[in-house]
Design brief:
Chain lengths: ~100, ~120, ~400
């Protein structure tokens, strides 16, 4: 099956129990000479900060507000994402089992 | 590498560093139990406008059929042709042969070169 | 010597971009109605523009990308499309106003109504873009625009109370006519902080092949060029305050604005006003046409450069051909360029956040700028400009309706 990556961007993702997890904001890939494979999907509003390379703006604001973290982002390995229905992506795990990405 | 940040919407150049548009889309191949692979870069109005709404994509297709180089659909370039990524994406292709600059060539031949001063002259 | 010439020309170019029908009309209205009380708006607009222009030049010199390139690449096509529509629509209205300004200047000089000049003027603008290079447009026309120094001469000849004028550099709340005061203040800021200037300047840095070594030159050009332009706007305001306000002349027509020069320069004032506006609006029309075409070309990844023959960047050339053609149409039908100017200035103010907010992100992007990204001073200034732009966005349309 073929999917256009740019059309997956911003799509809501639910976990195996139907609970909303977040939106797909980035695709982490591994590239060699001739191919490019998807390693993981980044889900969560703060993956947008990563995409905008905006940490240099956000971190000073975090320090100013004296908060440790004001963001959430999950790193979903490729094997845990079910894209059989690209308009309604689902995880193969539960949200409570997810860990925040670094 | 992050696909959206580092590849999507980036400028494309061919092996001679000739501009050939932007990465308007990326095609991912999904297998039943295999790791998803990025197989193609897409360039073209249909792919681009689809990101806003299918209505715009359909209009782009209609315009492409009625006018211009009459290309059906977007241009697809295999990912294996990617040489480097970074501030721009360099491809191991020749721009003219891919169809990516068909509109540029068509408008040059059918409109611009018909206006005095628009054709091949010594560049400043 | 070469770098000195580049600085000198850059300053001159910046003047050409600053002074145009919007800034002259709004400054003249401000002076005619409120005396010196709105000088602070010109000063504020100038300071904001200095920072924005310096950042635009620095961004392109370091990253070798334009702001439009980076907006598409960082924020994606859907967001870029929103910015495109907003910026292009407003810039197009300003283009109509500038072409109209050239037509009105010719109307003053020849007596022939501006609708008759719409097509010939548009043709000349198009021809300069078709045959000219970036250097010709940037420097040649801007050098002609130096005739606008006559506004400074006029202001000095009228012997203003400099102490009272200095008082106008501090914001004050007007007693009566609050809505009109607010509207003109917003319009002055909209005329000064024009996003198309940022896009044009950023593209110009690429056209001129700037690199990191140009950062100091860029700073000098931004500071002195924009200051000089702001200084000229202030001269227009002061002249209007002395020449028009005492007689209660409110500027509703372009010809009335010409009167601000005749008090100080009875013999040549009318002629100098017309010629000044002609060259200032011509420079602005060329810059805006280029800015709109750059926006499309860079955003969609087409070839672009004013230094290429048209067949080498056919879509870019077709874009400016079409927009100049369409911009002539309302003028042929006699739509008042002054009204278009005032509306477009208010709309520019209303759409500022679309341009400035993404810009803040780009100026802090380590991938594009590395060690040359914004420090805390520049970021603070941009944050203040964003705040101002959101305030303007909210109040400009209501003020346009009530006070315009």
């Amino acid at each position: 099956m073929e999917i256009n990556v740019e059309l997956l961007l911003g799509t809501k993702v639910r976990d195996v129990d139907g609970e909303e997890v977040g939106r797909i904001e980035e695709f982490r890939v591994e590239r060699d000479d001739k191919s490019c494979v998807v390693e993981a999907y980044l889900i969560g509003a703060s993956a947008v900060i990563q995409r905008l390379s905006a940490w240099t703006l956000v971190r000073p604001i975090e320090r100013l507000l004296n908060t440790r973290k004001i963001y959430t982002v999950y790193r979903i390995p490729w094997e845990d994402m079910d894209l059989s229905d690209p308009t309604h992506p689902r995880l193969r795990t539960a949200k409570r089992d997810l860990r925040h990405a670094k | 590498m992050d696909l959206i940040r580092d590849v999507l919407d980036k400028k494309l150049v061919d092996r001679e560093d000739c501009p050939m548009g932007r990465v308007d889309g990326l095609v991912m191949q999904l297998g039943e139990h295999s790791q998803p692979r990025i197989t193609h870069i897409e360039i073209g109005g249909q792919t681009l406008w689809m990101r806003l709404h299918p209505v715009f994509a359909r209009l782009a297709v209609k315009l492409g059929r009625a006018w211009g180089p009459k290309r059906d659909g977007s241009v697809r370039i295999p990912w294996s042709r990617v040489i480097t990524t970074g501030k721009q994406v360099k491809l191991d292709v020749e721009a003219k042969e891919t169809g990516a600059i068909d509109w540029e060539i068509w408008i040059a031949r059918h409109i611009i070169e018909r206006i005095p001063g628009g054709g091949e002259e010594e560049e400043e | 010597m070469k770098k000195f010439m580049q600085i000198a020309l850059g300053i001159v170019t910046s003047v050409g971009g600053f002074l145009e029908i919007g800034s002259v009309t709004t400054a003249a209205q401000a002076g005619a109605t409120f005396g010196y009380k709105l000088l602070w708006a010109v000063l504020l607009g100038t300071i904001c523009l200095i920072f924005l222009v310096e950042m635009s030049g620095r961004f392109s010199a370091v990253s070798k990308h334009t702001i439009v390139d980076a907006t598409r690449e960082r924020f994606g096509f859907p967001f870029f499309a929103i910015v495109l529509v907003g910026m292009v629509l407003v810039a197009f209205m300003v283009l109509v106003a500038e072409l109209g300004g050239i037509g009105l200047s010719l109307q003053i000089l020849t007596g022939l109504g501006f609708p008759w000049w719409a097509v010939p003027v548009s043709f000349v603008v198009w021809l300069l873009m078709w045959k000219g290079t970036f250097d010709l447009i940037e420097n040649g026309v801007s050098l002609l625009g130096l005739v606008t120094i006559c506004f400074v001469v006029a202001a000095v000849k009228l012997h203003p109370d400099w102490h009272a004028a200095a008082g106008g550099l501090l914001p004050s709340l007007e007693g009566d006519q609050k809505a009109k005061y607010g509207f003109i203040a917003v319009s002055i800021l909209g005329a000064s902080i024009s996003p198309y200037l940022m896009y044009f300047y950023s593209s110009g840095a690429i056209e001129d092949k700037w690199d990191v070594s140009y950062i100091p030159i860029n700073r000098v050009i931004a500071v002195f060029g924009m200051s000089f332009g702001g200084f000229l706007s202030m001269a227009v305001l002061i002249t209007a305050a002395l020449a028009l306000k005492p007689y209660g002349i409110d500027i509703e027509k372009f010809e009335q604005a010409a009167l601000l020069m005749t008090t100080a320069l009875p013999k040549w004032g009318f002629f100098l006003f017309a010629v000044s506006m002609l060259f200032a609006c011509l420079g602005a029309a060329l810059e805006i046409s280029l800015a709109i075409s750059y926006f499309f070309a860079q955003g969609f990844g087409w070839n672009w450069s004013e230094n290429l023959t048209p067949s080498k960047d056919s879509r870019f050339c077709l874009t400016y051909t079409i927009i100049i053609l369409i911009a002539a149409v309302p003028l042929v039908f006699g739509i008042d360029p002054i009204k278009v100017t005032m509306i477009s200035m208010a709309l520019t103010a209303a759409t500022l956040p679309l341009a400035i907010v993404p810009f803040l992100f780009l100026m802090n992007d380590p991938i594009y700028l590395g060690e040359h990204r914004n420090g805390w001073i520049s970021n603070s200034v941009v944050a203040i400009i964003i705040l101002i732009s959101f305030v303007l966005a909210v109040i400009s349309i209501p003020l346009q309706i009530i006070g315009g």
